[in-house]
Design goal:
Blueprint lengths: L1 E2 L6 E2 L7 E7 L4 E6 L4 E6 L5 E5 L4 E7 L4 E6 L4 E6 L5 E5 L4 E7 L4 E6 L4 E6 L5 E5 L4 E7 L4 E6 L4 E6 L4 E6 L4 E7 L4 E6 L4 E6 L5 E5 L4 E7 L4 E6 L4 E7 L7 E3 L4 E7 L4 E6 L4 E5 L9 E6 L3 E4 L2 E5 L5 E8 L8 E8 L7 E2 L6 E4 L6 E11 L24 E7 L8 E2 L6 E2 L5 E3 L2 E2 L7 E5 L5 E4 L2 E4 L3 E9 L11 E8 L8 E2 L8 E2 L4 E2 L9 E2 L4 E2 L9 E2 L4 E2 L9 E2 L33 H13 L3 H5 L12 H11 L19 H13 L9 H8 L9 H10 L3
Parallel strand pairs: 32-38, 40-47
Antiparallel strand pairs: 1-2, 3-4, 4-5, 5-6, 7-8, 8-9, 9-10, 11-12, 12-13, 13-14, 15-16, 16-17, 17-18, 19-20, 20-21, 21-22, 23-24, 24-25, 25-26, 27-28, 28-29, 30-33, 31-32, 33-36, 34-35, 34-37, 37-38, 39-42, 41-45, 43-46, 44-45, 46-47, 48-49, 50-51, 52-53, 54-55
């Protein structure tokens, strides 16, 4: 369950089976949940609540985070080892531990991890760099562990020997401090160097002085089960399992206590020192008690803290990549009727009880902190006004002034994180482009939030060069452009990315295609034209007598016999009208001649069976000269002689007789007993074609037609001979 600290509204996030422990990385805003019975860890994105599952060992019981190295450590009770999770990749490494590890703590300063092994009565110390384990012997049944990163000491609560083992990491020595009975939890106040141990069966808390190891007993409710420290207010909160309350406060200075009611069987507790809120998990009533400790009446002298060193990071409040961030303190006094002048501001980091440092300036006040470690920090600050105590000039020295008024202490939480990454993204690839000498094109890219410009270089200068965003072509090939963006104090330099653009070579247009230069890119010749050769700069229109219906052609097609093409750039041929023909291919016009008026006689005998039909038959039978024309011509002033008739017939009965209009049955040859006979029979029938019966048509073609044409088609061909 995720609780909004401002509104106390809740959100439920699905985890594994029996979630047993939880840890937060405030730098990456990731939450890690150890699921005891599903043997895995649920990783929750603190911004979106999206989850990822990472496999751990058997019975993962406890978990801790090192925010500096972004490593997560899981103590696996059942497999006697520790799973190390890389927070960046979620990859895992396994490190051997003792028997039944139940608690784990991290010192982010030294990068050491401490694992309490309940059954083997020892602590496994893991080097965070090498993952090398070392064993330190402690008391009986170590159940809880805590680290003071300031003193570099480790405190181990031993449940069955009723004591705490203090490990001095610097000297690798141990000291034993006697406590109450059955420890369930231990907590350290690094500022006051106090250690707090819950004694479940003794109904009290042992307070250990971190300097002298002297224990002090503070009485609590029944079965103190969990404990948490607020280092800002120096208050300690104890969850009393069987008293259904929280002992609040153990005052860190006086050890006096106050009791606040919680739910049933409180068994876990946590503090937000920034908001001064306490969260108590009540296992018996299935809820969480949120405690907002009362705040004393605010002083009329306050200090607001701001910083110009902060960067905007989703999920992390007040993040800075500077280890020595700068801060500004703005002090405000509302004393009435007259507000004294504010003299200065004092501050310190991660403590409110150490030496205070005076800020610079005279309002607003400023400070630049010394180098801070990666992770979470709290800056404390307060202002003082100008009512200095002291004697008035000329007085007896008794002192008529007032001591300076100290304002309320402001707490400003911030996190030191690694510099933010930048990513470069190229725009749309401009390629492929066609090469032209010194031709250009442009590239584009967007970078990260540092504000630094994205710069471009060519890694293939033999193919292309670049100036700004303009790429100049050198030759055809693959042009590769690299993009870079510098970093600054807040952002790392972006990783170099590249974009490859294909520059096509100069290729001549193939036959059937053309361009203004003769080279690619090329355009297909349009219908009605052709391109016969490669490298053409223009298409050629089809001449009269030819046509081309398709684009991209290398030639035009001659008009077929019986068809004509009268115009250039034509896409089709036109059939000759009835009564005309072409005799040859590639004609631009049809011949409209009386082909069957072989003797060129006058209208009385223009188409006559006794003249024209006889002349045709004789010619086909091989008659020539006088034998051809004997008693076979009609009347008229312009009769053809034998030579003229032979010329006429040889013209229209060429060697390739399939082209002859006298091949009326379409069998590819002109014969006297087929074509000649059918023409004779037609001329002997005086009826017009449109009134002839089917029987009459069959009588004309009977036993004479050899081609595949119908009777009607044969007669239409004969009619075409006599327009």
């Amino acid at each position: 369950t995720v609780i909004d600290g401002v509104t106390n509204t809740t959100t439920t996030v699905t985890a594994g089976t029996n979630p047993n422990a939880i840890a937060v990385n405030p730098v990456t805003n990731k939450v890690y949940v150890a699921n005891l019975n599903s043997n895995d860890v649920t990783v929750i994105d603190g911004t979106t609540n999206a989850t990822t599952t990472v496999t751990a060992g058997t019975l993962p019981y406890a978990i801790a985070v090192n925010p500096v190295t972004n490593k997560v450590y899981v103590a696996n009770f059942g497999s006697n080892n520790v799973t190390v999770i890389d927070g960046a990749t979620n990859t895992t490494t396994t490190v051997a531990a003792g028997t039944s590890p139940v608690a784990i703590a991290v010192n982010p300063v030294t990068n050491k991890v401490y694992v309490a092994n309940q059954i083997s009565n020892n602590v496994t110390v893991i080097d965070g760099v090498t993952n090398t384990p070392t064993i330190v012997t402690v008391g009986t049944s170590p159940y809880a562990i805590a680290v003071n990163p300031v003193t570099n000491k480790v405190y181990v609560a031993n449940q069955l020997s009723y004591n705490v083992t203090v490990i001095d990491v610097a000297s690798n020595t141990t000291t034993t401090v006697t406590t109450g009975k059955r420890h369930n939890a231990i907590a350290v106040h690094p500022v006051t160097n106090k250690v707090y141990v819950t004694n479940q069966n003794s109904t009290n808390v042992t307070v250990i002085d971190g300097v002298t190891n002297t224990p002090t007993i503070v009485t609590t409710g029944k079965s103190p089960y969990a404990i948490a420290v607020n280092p800002v207010t120096n208050k300690v909160y104890v969850a009393n399992y069987f008293s259904d309350n929280v002992t609040t406060v153990i005052d860190g200075v006086t050890n006096t206590t106050t009791t606040v009611t919680a739910g049933t069987n409180p068994n876990a507790i946590a503090v937000n020192p920034v908001t001064n809120k306490v969260y108590v998990a009540n296992s018996g009533s299935d809820n969480v008690t949120v405690i907002s400790p009362s705040i004393d009446t605010a002083l009329p002298l306050t200090t607001a803290v701001t910083s110009s060193s902060l960067v905007n990071v989703a999920g992390i409040s007040n993040a800075t990549v500077s280890s020595a961030p700068a801060f500004t303190f703005t002090a405000t006094s509302t004393y009435a009727p007259t507000a004294p002048a504010i003299r200065t501001v004092y501050y310190q980091v991660d403590s409110a009880s150490g030496p205070w440092i005076q800020a610079s300036g005279a309002g607003p006040f400023t400070a630049t902190l010394p180098a801070q470690s990666k992770g979470d920090h709290v800056l404390y600050a307060f202002a003082v006004d100008g009512l200095e105590g002291g004697a008035t000039a000329g007085s007896s020295g008794e002192g008529s002034g007032n001591s300076p008024m100290v304002g309320s202490v402001a707490a400003f939480a911030f996190s030191v994180i690694d510099p933010l990454a930048q990513i470069i993204t190229f725009g749309a690839n401009p390629g492929p482009v066609n090469y032209s000498p010194s031709g250009t094109f442009t590239v584009s890219a967007t970078g990260g939030a540092s504000g630094n410009a994205v710069s471009f270089t060519s890694t293939t200068t033999g193919v292309c060069t670049i100036s700004g965003t303009t790429v100049t072509m050198v030759t055809a090939g693959t042009c590769t452009i690299a993009a870079n963006q510098a970093g600054n104090t807040d952002f790392t330099a972006a990783a170099q990315v590249t974009q490859s653009i294909t520059i096509n070579p100069i290729l001549p247009c193939t036959p059937g295609n053309f361009s203004a230069t003769g080279n690619a890119p090329c355009t297909p010749a349009p219908a009605g034209s052709f391109v016969p050769t490669a490298g053409a700069t223009a298409a050629i229109a089809c001449a009269i007598g030819s046509y081309q219906p398709n684009s991209g052609s290398i030639s035009c097609t001659l008009a077929s016999v019986g068809f004509f093409v009268p115009l250039t750039a034509s896409t089709s041929q036109t059939p000759c009208p009835l009564g005309s023909t072409t005799l040859i291919t590639g004609a631009s016009a049809c011949l409209n001649l009386p082909l069957l008026n072989i003797d060129n006689s006058d209208p009385a005998t223009v188409y006559d069976a006794n003249t024209d039909a006889v002349l045709l038959t004789r010619y086909l039978l091989g008659y020539r000269n006088a034998d051809l024309i004997a008693n076979a011509r009609g009347t008229g002033a312009n009769l053809r002689d034998a030579a003229q008739i032979e010329t006429h017939l040889s013209t229209y009965i060429p060697t390739n007789q399939a082209l002859s209009p006298f091949d009326v049955d379409g069998d590819g040859v002109v014969l006297p007993m087929t074509d000649g006979l059918m023409i004779l029979r037609r001329l002997l029938n005086p009826n017009a074609l449109n009134v002839m019966t089917a029987a009459e048509q069959s009588a004309i073609t009977a036993n004479a037609k050899r081609g595949s044409l119908t009777d009607a088609q044969v007669l239409q061909r004969i009619e075409a001979l006599k327009p």
